[in-house]
């Protein structure tokens, strides 16, 4: 997305120092895990994965903050620290624990106003909040929206397919797994409140829908119903290869109207079948 930050009180050097601290902290949290630990072989229990997620969240959150008028430095620093305790603390308390570690670190930095530290720590502590986003500050909202958005779209699809490998699933389960990403995308679109986040959610949801269509058009034996175990049936295979069946198959699998979240379905077409992609245009020029 490449956001140009309008003005920043945090220098590039300071931010890089913070990034190094966060990465080192994550790496130290999983240092002894190769000897045991339930999650040790999942890639997302690694410092590399978590740090990559954090970088994505910084990018998305900064975009949202910039366009919605939130305090950019509060948002990007809280995005950087939001999951710092994710690998060492229980999921239920990782936000509060993260805020504690963040405060300890920020208090060692020169020239950071106490009000800035308080705001950053509040956003980190509240980033797991499950209630309406309108209950939170614009800065916390930007962070939560970015955290949600990183789990949908092309990246969300890659992660769930990667998980299939770790669960020894076959590729014919891919449609069901991609449907889960679609479902997650629809939920995300419902939950986010800012125009910028809604626009990003819309764009990402559309990408997953396209991927789902491409997948099914290339793999006739793909299971199309998440709830029914698939038995290959050569008489059905032809029907699945026709493009027109794809949306109705998705509807069956998820129990939802595929296009219920679209507002401008007529103009957003799969670039594979028609080279227009107004969603990408829409987001890139904002
Ligand atoms: Fe996160």
UniProtKB/TrEMBL annotation:
Entry keywords, A to Z: Hydrolase
Disordered, as annotated region: 225-286
Composition skew (Low complexity), residue ranges: 254-286
Compositional bias ranges of the Basic and acidic residues kind: 235-246
GO MF annotations in UniProt: hydrolase activity
Domain (HD/PDEase): residue spans on this chain: 46-161
SUPFAM superfamilies per record: HD-domain/PDEase-like
Annotated protein name in UniProt: HD family hydrolase
InterPro entries: HD/PDEase_dom, HD_domain, HDIG_dom
Keyword Hydrolase appears in the UniProt entry: yes
């Amino acid at each position: 997305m490449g956001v140009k930050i309008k003005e920043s009180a945090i220098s590039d050097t300071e931010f890089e120092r913070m990034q190094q601290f966060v990465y080192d902290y994550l790496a130290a949290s999983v240092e002894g895990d190769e000897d045991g630990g339930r999650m040790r072989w999942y890639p997302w229990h690694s410092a590399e994965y978590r740090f990559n997620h954090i970088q994505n969240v910084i990018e998305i959150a900064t975009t949202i903050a910039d366009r919605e008028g939130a305090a950019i430095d509060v948002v990007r620093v809280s995005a950087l620290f939001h999951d710092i305790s994710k690998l060492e603390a229980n999921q239920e308390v990782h936000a509060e624990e993260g805020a504690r570690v963040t405060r300890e670190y920020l208090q060692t930095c020169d020239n950071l106003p106490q009000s800035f530290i308080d705001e950053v720590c509040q956003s980190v502590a509240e980033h797991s909040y499950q209630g309406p986003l309108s209950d939170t500050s614009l800065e916390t909202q930007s962070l939560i929206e970015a955290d949600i958005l990183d789990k949908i779209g092309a990246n969300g699809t890659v992660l769930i397919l990667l998980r299939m490998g770790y669960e020894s699933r076959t590729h014919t389960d891919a449609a069901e797994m991609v449907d889960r990403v679609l479902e997650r995308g629809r939920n995300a679109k419902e939950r986010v409140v800012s125009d910028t986040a809604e626009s990003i959610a819309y764009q990402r949801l559309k990408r997953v829908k396209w991927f789902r269509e491409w997948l099914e058009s290339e793999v006739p034996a793909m299971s199309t119903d998440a709830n029914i175990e698939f038995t290959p049936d050569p008489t059905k295979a032809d029907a699945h290869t026709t493009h027109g069946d794809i949306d109705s198959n998705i509807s069956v699998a998820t129990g939802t109207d595929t296009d219920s979240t679209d507002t401008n379905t007529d103009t957003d077409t799969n670039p594979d079948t028609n080279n227009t992609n107004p969603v990408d245009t829409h987001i890139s020029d904002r």
